[in-house]
Amino acid sequence: MMKISVFMLSILFCLNVFSQTDTTTYYWSNQKVKAKGVMKQGGIEEGTWKFYDQNGKLKQIVTYRNGIFDGPFKNYYADAGISEIGSFYKAKMDGPFESYYPNGKLKQTGFYNMGFLDSNWTWYSEAGKLEQKGQYDLDKKVGDWVYYYPNGTMKAIFVNNDRGAILKDFFTDSGEQLVENGNGKWTLYYENGKLKEQGFYEDGLKSGKWEYFSENGNLIEIGEFINGLKDGNWKTYHSLTTVIKLNAFYEAGKRVGKWSHFYQEGQLAKEMSYENDIESGVYREYFLNGELSLKGFYENGKKSGEWEWFLQDGKKDMTGSFLEGMQHGFWTYYFNTNGKVLSNGFYTADKQTGKWQYYYENGVLWKEGEFKEGLKDGHWAYWYENKSKLMEGSFLKGKEDGSWVSYFENGKVKDQGSYSSGLMTGEWKGFYNDGKQRYVGSYVDGLKSGMWSFWNEKGQKELDQNYEEGRPDGLRISYYENGKVKDKGSYSDGIQVGKWEYFYDNGNKEMEATYKKGRQDGKVITYHEIGTIASEKNYKDGIPNGKFIYYAKREGKVLKSMIYKDGKKVSESK
């Protein structure tokens, strides 16, 4: 069935929309109109809609009825006028149809019947010459189809019936009839005068030896037809050389016997066998250097039994078995660097099943575990290259589930906690490689929740932070290595709020401020390390607003003061 380009509205609702009383307009990101038309209540298109490209060029006019294509449409080239004219009925092409070349010349004309090509169809060249004409009956060619040369003279008449397309008459471009009533010689030429194809028709069907040539005159295919079907030995050649590309055999149009494919250099590329048009028996592929690339076996057109893949240096790439065309049984994959095993395990009906093992390049086991229906299921364990345990835990239907523990190479626990359907859940703990605690906290549905505590490598607490749904929420206190508080305040949904205090490592206050939606708001006081006030500042929504006073370190003497309004300094005094 002929494909007609139609802009759909499925992506338009992510664009800016501006509505008037009964017309809706959609815009491209560059503010050019993308589409406009009437939208009924409930977002249903109605009547004529126009669609434009990003340059503002009209692309299509289409008619809707209750949200589906129904009525006339026109498609346009970007810069060359109408490309297609037709109609829809209940979202299917229906009625007369015409298409045009960019130069405005008629390309084809015909008729659709509820989406099917139907009745008379005619095609023209870009120069306006008749190319072919005939009839369809619900997408099927029927009756006489007539074809023409570029110079306008008749080329051939085919009769379409239950036997297919049967040649009736064939003429040269000068008008000489070569085939009459289905009998005679068929000869076609390229525009450069070189022979393109030649052979005989008998009772409207190809018969006897046929030859096909490239534009440079080289033979590219040769073989015989019997009653319009390929039969016997057929050879295909690489177009730029006389080297054979394919040596094939047919019997009444069906592939049979041994088929051999060759590289352009002449070496065998692959070989297989067919029985009654179905691939069967041994299958092999080769590298250009002659080394075997893969070998296997087909049964009733499906891969079966043991298959092996190789690298160009002769090393194995992978091996395994097929059953009814699907991976089945034990499979092994290899590193392409040293030929050692990369992984191995079982398949059932194309899905990994049972125990699988994976290895490092040096042959040391990396991980092993169970699959069920192609998904990890059950206990899995992982190791470092020094053979010490890396981590272990369980999967359920391809997702981590239950307790998991990871380890340092020295065997000490690194992290431990639980999963539920692939998401971290419950209490999790982390440690340094000497066993000292690194963190402790809880997850809910894979997100941090509640109070979390963190320690440095010396065992000193660094931070207490409350979380909700993975974001800081509630109290936060951080600490210096000497145990004194570094800062203290609160978050709401990941944003600083309320009173915050900052301290020097001697315990003296460094700054106190109030935050509103993550911005300083109100008075902010900073302190010298000895405890005296260093400055007093006023902010509104993070912008300086009000008096700023700076004090000397010891005397408490005012060094200078300024007044800001909406972030701009309006006065200063010393």
From TrEMBL:
InterPro entries: MORN_2
UniProt entry tagged with the keyword Plastid: no
Signal peptide range in chain numbering: 1-19
Keywords: Signal
Record's protein name: Toxin-antitoxin system YwqK family antitoxin
Protein source organism: Acidiluteibacter ferrifornacis
